[in-house]
Amino acid sequence: MSKHNRLLLVALSIIVVAGLIIIPMNFNRYGLYILSQWAVMTIAAMGLNLTLGYAGQVSLAQGAFVGIGAYGAAILTTHGWPLIAALGLVIVICFVVGWLLGYPALRVQHHYLAFVTLAFSTLMFLVFRNESWLTNGIYGISNIPRPEVFGFPTRKPLPFYYLCIGSLGLVTLAMWWLIRSPWGRAFMALRENPIRAQSLGIDTRRYTLMAFAIGSVLGGIAGVLYAPLTQYVDPVPFNLQLSLDLLMMVIVGGSGFMLGPFLGAMIAVLLPEWLRFAEGYYLMLYAAAVIVLLIYSPSGILGILDRYLSSRRTQAASALRAAAQSKLEAAQ
Amino acid sequence: MRSIVLAGLCSAVLLSGAAYAQSGAPIKIANVAELSGGGATVGNNWKNGIDLAVEEINAKGGILGRKIEVSHADSQSNPGVARAQVQKALDGEPYVLLGPGYSGSVKVTAPLAAEAGITQIMGGEAAELTQAGNKFLFRTSFGQQSSMPKVAKYINDELKAKSVAVVWVNNDFGRGGRDVITKEFNRLGIKVAADLSTEAGQADFAADVSKIKAAAPDAVFIYVNEEESARILKEIKRQGVTAPLIGETTLVGQKVIELAGDAANGARGHVGLTTDAPVEAVKAFRDRFVKKYNYVPDHNGLKGYLAIYMVKATTEKMGKVDSKAFADTLHGLTIKTSTEPNILMDVTFDQNGDIDRQGFLVEVVEGKQVVKQVLPKLN
User: If you count Cβ atoms within 10 Å of the first and of the last residue's Cβ in chain A, which end, N or C, has fewer?
Assistant: First the structure.
């Protein structure tokens, strides 16, 4: 990337971040709620993007981890724990469970792996619903308090939105670092060619498990924010549908792109809201839009951008080659 | 000169606009319901009932001379989405909020409406909803805490059953009913011989029925949705279980009778609000509904319809459109069919927003509902 492009990118990200902080100040409660939902779903989708997009492991269990996070936060905060403590515990639980769930991924791949994780998703739904002593079953847990952050209460929509967007910012930075670290390269090597990765000395077994565990932790973090956002959890939102939605967010946004989940979650959370003017037809329009997008660009929204950029690069390269060729010919 | 004329015109328009806002502007009501997802049947019946009532009232000139305008929003049967849609509806400052129908979605949205001081008329039936001290929440049907004791009393007094098998659907509706009635059974000293949880949409009840058979109870209490009721009734007949079958609206409704045929005969149930109620006004409502939508509504259609007439009766009682005083007026209000025929049955709202209305105990005899007992209004 040239210096000029890098500057442009930095300027653009500053504008986007400032926009996300300043513009919502005038939003009504509904707008803030939807934007908070977008931030939460983006975190969960980033986790799946790591597992699926970077490490190449298909998982239909991300929704279940959001559920584990949400129930963890709901149960603990209604018993007087601070949210940050609940977050710590959820991170540990999701890491361990995600690690364990990774073991089947060592034996089965692709759609077989999808089925294994689907089974886990269903299992977790049944736990949420049937283990009433812990989760209050189908009645759900209500009156989940919103936390205080450094002494600031986040009960009102705007402070809570800042909590969500701040968490998203932290997760994004951590992710950015992870992708650029040797770990990120190992994950991608795993996706592109596991055998070659192994022959280069990468412990594919450990990295596969790690991809699952870290991806699951991000799902859990999203859940920890989801519970105080809606202030009520019941099993229904964490059924297989959520895992499928998250999978769609990753694929629509552009699997394996850092910014994919942001756009994917925007499509999944905001687009149906924008289409509500169509009343009874809004979900049909939404489905049609997603289908058309994926037919046009199977690699998602960022796939379009990527194709455009790489074609420009090819053009530039061939122009250079042509110029060099004519120079060479002239020299002869 | 021209500018003066223009200014005059403008102010005239503004003035008439202001006058219009005072008397003739439509009354805005917001509905948030399960229009897609698992609760789509519930939500769409509720919505159609509302639309029918609004159409009728607007055709007759509206409420206090003002037309009603209802907006419908889809909660996708998801409490998180319901919260967003209710927030959006409340940001628009509606006169009254209608819905949602799922108890979970009601629980997450009721505090928002209460905080905004907007009355919420909802379809949820879980017992706890009206027990949290919310001053703005109203039911459109019996809560389970008032219907289940009547059923338990019937099983105890009339059937003299000592043991009962309980079959319920594992969602908030079924679970809520099961919990209330089991508590009543304990109080009356009736043993629960089998406690069977089933899934919404379950197709095969052979295993459940054989468990009932093995338990050999004096009576079977069935609390599942209409389609599943029909399936389990057929299976019970096939396996030759002879114990009396007792349920609620969802066991003895017209849809169950159509689907189960002969197998529905002998099923008994408490019926609070159903399009099969032996009341002329309800039958007339059903005919109007079928004429408009070409299908027979379930009790959610009736609930949506009544919600709008509750708004009408309360507003006319106040004599003005005042969203702040609405809840106070509706608390303790009795709406009689003599003053508002389309409320269909006399109804009273108590201080919790719970409903008091006539109920019926019916039995299916040769494919028809027969009223065995009329359970009068309490007050």
Answer: C
